[in-house]
Amino acid sequence: MTIHISEANIIAVDAAHGTRPFKGDILIEGSRIAHVGEPLVTPDGARRIDGRNRLVIPGLVNAHVHSWEAMFKGRYDNMPLEIWMLYSYPLVGTKALDPRLIYLRSMIVAMESLKNGVTCLVDDIIELPVQGMDAIDAVFDAYHDIGIRANVSGHVINRPFVDTIPFTREYLPRDLIADVSRIKVPTVKNYLDFAGEVVKKHQDRSDRLRYLVAPSGPQRCTEEMLKAVHDFAREIKSAYHIHVLETKVQAVAGREFYGRTLVQYLDDLGVLTNISTLAHSIWVTDRDIACMAERGSSVAHNPISNQKLGAGIAPFRKLLDAGVNVALGSDGISSNDTSRMLDVMQVAGLLHKVTTPEYGLWPTASEIIYAATMGGARSVQLQNEIGSIETGKRADLVLFDLETINFTPQNDLLNHLVYCENGSSVEKVFVNGEIVVDDGELTKVNEGALVRELRERYDAFSEHHKGVEELNRRFEPYFKKIHKHCCGENIELNRYSAPPNEWLLS
């Protein structure tokens, strides 16, 4: 299908214009952009869309989300990561979900994402108690049906739980250690065999969907796993997506387990490279940042989740100034409670204004928009396909109505987009040249029916999960002690990372 968008306001995020708005036409032929710029005569047979009083931007990229958490949206609050995970990623008592429920769970994330201008997801799925083929099939099926672009992970942990968090053996009673020690972890061969089967089954199914290699974190995987899956990522041209230094506890883990920061550990293993995307990267040192920049690595910055879990503030300005590619992510639908990237953009723009009184260093709307588009594309190795509006690239676009209250009165379009827009002005969304949101409504699935079906199934799920919560509540008193130990004054964290907002704390 050929689509002609005429006389639109365009933020292309390309080499020629950057994020500077300009007026022009866009021609879409099939899945790709055929023209951007000067006015065109609408080709015969093409659909013409009047772009006057409209804004077109590249589709937003959510560089880090966990769809697993959609079942816990709005369920938890006021817990740091290591305690929150006891309930949202429970240690014991879980059972495999019905694949249909996984399909619906994934749909909820995809529907909210598309309607808010997200055209590409990085879905890092931690399926408990173990990720099977039926489970990952359900996720791919959902994203295939709704029309979103997605990178779907096989998240892997292969170290025993008590060896992933410092001081667990000192604080946890023997009976609880015994409980979690019964959990089987995959071998490197198990994981690679499974990952290879998923790639064969789904990689050629659609040019929108890809398998993502995602070792959970350096402290959660063996050296052999970290190296082997990096090689596999190179082989299948995937990003290497990994959680790094999200919390103070993880900063302490680097020292206790390896005698160095987790970034330095990854670099010593040879897996901190230009395909590596480090989710969070809050408690990084200046040396870490310089190393990440030198290696060409990316950071997936999750400002809302990091605040809700009290994890800290990533050094956004230091990362950018060092040359690290920064993308934006919502993180999970429980640690954030939505997948709306426009919310993430606004918070990212605001949060870092309190980290320094030097207002010349505060984020600009242009930097935020870049991180949400090209920064995200680069983080998943798709910078040559998406992230900007350029001839030859995939037609992943968002069209906003500029006649809404959010853009009235109309001043700086960049500021309106970052600080005023909440998704209600999204009129059309294109993925691969296909209109998947039209007049604010999804075109490929029945949103109401899917929401009703999930609601009908939720009570039974929630009742079971209450029992799981009770089983895991036994661990909470001891995790509180670990959290306090790692965050207390007796831990010399400043040897590894000064708080990004240290001027407020001095």
UniProtKB/TrEMBL annotation:
<dbReference type="InterPro" id="IPR032466">
    <property type="entry name" value="Metal_Hydrolase"/>
</dbReference>
<dbReference type="InterPro" id="IPR006680">
    <property type="entry name" value="Amidohydro-rel"/>
</dbReference>
<dbReference type="Pfam" id="PF01979">
    <property type="entry name" value="Amidohydro_1"/>
</dbReference>
<keyword id="KW-0378">Hydrolase</keyword>
<dbReference type="InterPro" id="IPR011059">
    <property type="entry name" value="Metal-dep_hydrolase_composite"/>
</dbReference>
<protein>
    <submittedName>
        <fullName>Cytosine/adenosine deaminase-related metal-dependent hydrolase</fullName>
    </submittedName>
</protein>
<comment type="similarity">
    <text>Belongs to the metallo-dependent hydrolases superfamily. ATZ/TRZ family.</text>
</comment>
<dbReference type="GO" id="GO:0016787">
    <property type="term" value="F:hydrolase activity"/>
</dbReference>
<dbReference type="InterPro" id="IPR050287">
    <property type="entry name" value="MTA/SAH_deaminase"/>
</dbReference>
<feature type="domain" description="Amidohydrolase-related">
    <location>
        <begin position="55"/>
        <end position="436"/>
    </location>
</feature>
